[in-house]
Amino acid sequence: MDVGKDLVAASATPLVLAILAEGDSYGYAIIKRVAELSGGHLQWTDGMLYPVLHRLERQGYVAAKWSTSESGRRRRYYRITQEGRTHLAEQRKQWQVVDGALRGIWMKECTA
Amino acid sequence: MTDFADQMLEEQIAQWRAYVRRRQGFQGPDVEELEGHLRDELAALTESGLAGEEAFLVAVKRMGNLDALSREFARAHSERLWKQLVVANDAADESAKTSRSETLVVLCLAIAAALAVKAPALFGVPMTDPNEAFYVRNASLFVLPFLTVYFVWKRGWNIFSSLWLAVPFAAGAVFANIYPLRASGDTLTLTALHLPIALWLAVGIAYVRGRWFTEGGRMDFVRFSGELVIYFVLIALGGGVLTAFTVMMFEAIKIKPEWFVQGWLVPCGAAGAVIIASWLVEAKQSVIENMAPVLTRLFTPLFTVLLLVFLATMAWTGNPMDAQRELLIGLDLLLVLVVGLVLYAASARDPHAPPNFFDGLQLLLVVSALVVDGVALAAIAARISEFGFTPNRVAGLGVNIILLVNLTCTAWLYARFLYRRGTFTALERWQMAYLPVYAAWAALVVIVFPPVFGYR
């Protein structure tokens, strides 16, 4: 089962912010973490993560800087900002509402 | 993110990089970031046992469709959107067709603008001495409506909503012509100067089409305006050469071409050139895009030096500023130019880059302009209190106050940015929010000044 395109797009921001809230990271590692968290069901086209990250940077939710990785190449590391944390908390509330509503109705189906 | 011993693989990566670079929407650092990702993926794949070639195919496939990706990059960086209108047309073959019909539309509009200049002559208002005032105050109305039509067409405006855009032009035509402005009167000159500024806002609204308040819309328009000026000047230079040759060659065979040059070539050419220049800005952005930042970088230090030396000389000699009309207008133009330089530098700058030496220079320019503006304000105020109000002095006073407010805020936000207390985006937002003020003031001058000052 693959999650639909719209849902993938909608969940991208909270997922990326939540992963960065765990600690600073870079593109490739974020993709791996998403795959790990969703058991491989959330299929992102790898490249698509970068526009998302750049948009978040523009909105001030994450900050980025280039630094040298262990292999000697430059790598762009992302860090969540205070604004990003606030936004994440807000997003979390919204997702909980959606989640709660769906749970409510599906639980009823199960018991009925 | 590793380098590979496999020479083939490195070559393939290099090819892929060159291919991505050629795409619109990506910039150097984006490509580097994506390449890093590709290398990480390749490392993981080869480690799990795939051979170089297979690993490369899988990694590239996972990266995704580059067309879709470049569109997403363009959306995420709307400041780059102006360079490629890839978002509008998805299919490449379609763009060839639209560019042909665009050429046709542009040529028609340019010819229409050129003929519009001559249209009043058909109705008994030829371009000769007593009618000069008519042409002077209506100059912008010959050209800007056609430019607006171009953007209405280009941006795919809905016909009915685009009719609203006719309102400012109709109002402009009414207010420019109902007042009995005297030829060579002050209010006539003021109307001629301010009407295009007020109407430029309408052009801007057509240009951004609904993106006025969204990120980047107004900035794109500012960029467009600056580049239009550059293109127009280039075309005008060429036009000057053409005119010179026309005069020289026909005089060589004893024919006086003045009536053609003055009555047709220069006015019609200038009107058409505005449309053509706008189209060139839209179509050939990448050519100019490298020139504009260079020009701002070249002239920012020079103007800073000019202002500083001027202030120092004034302080040293103690000569008060002579508030002659020409001088004050010149000073206003200088300050407008400084604001233009700041705006343009801002539009060409990556808002995320940290402050650098050039930003310090910009702040110096803004602060010295602020001081000059203060001196000019004092001179105008002194002249008003001594000789009373005239339309020119009040217009000068208004412009100076508007620029003073803008420069003060700009200096404050720039200083905050330099000391890392604020972001460059805040400065950009302030400049963008201030744009309608210029148009509102210009409209005020056109509408209110003539009756208030008795059409002097």
Number of helices of chain B: 18
Query: Separation of termini of chain B?
Result: 73 Å
Oligomeric form? heterodimer
- Give the radius of gyration of chain B: 27 Å
Radius of gyration of chain A: 16 Å
Order of helices and strands of chain A: HEHHEEH
Order of helices and strands of chain B: HHHHHHHHHHHHHHHHHH
Low-confidence stretches of chain B: 81-94
* Proportion of residues in extended strands of chain B: under 5%
Main sheet properties of chain A: 3 strands, antiparallel
Low-pLDDT parts of chain A are none
Protein chains sharing the most extensive interface = A-B, 24 and 30 residues
The main pleated sheet of chain B reads as: none
Counting helices, strands and paired strands, the structural category of chain A is alpha+beta
What's the mean pLDDT score of chain B?
Answer: 82
Estimated helix fraction of chain A: 55-70%
What is the percentage of strand-forming residues of chain A? 5-15%
- Secondary structure: number of strands of chain A: 3
**Strand neighbour order, sheet with most strands of chain A:** 1-3-2
Helix amount of chain B, in percent? over 70%
Number of strands of chain B: 0
Describe the structure.
With 112 residues, chain A is α+β, with helices and mostly antiparallel strands. Chain A has helices spanning 5-22, 27-37, 49-58, 82-111; strands at 25-26, 62-68, 74-80. The radius of gyration of chain A is 16 Å and the shape is globular. The model of chain A has no long low-confidence stretch (mean pLDDT 86). The longest helix of chain B has 36 residues, at 217-252. The chains are: A alpha+beta (112), B mainly alpha (456). The A-B interface holds A 26-28, 31, 45-48, 50-52, 54-55, 57-58, 60, 64, 66, 69, 71, 73-76 and B 1-3, 29-30, 32-34, 36-37, 39-41, 62-66, 68-69, 72-73, 75-77, 215, 351-352, 423, 425.
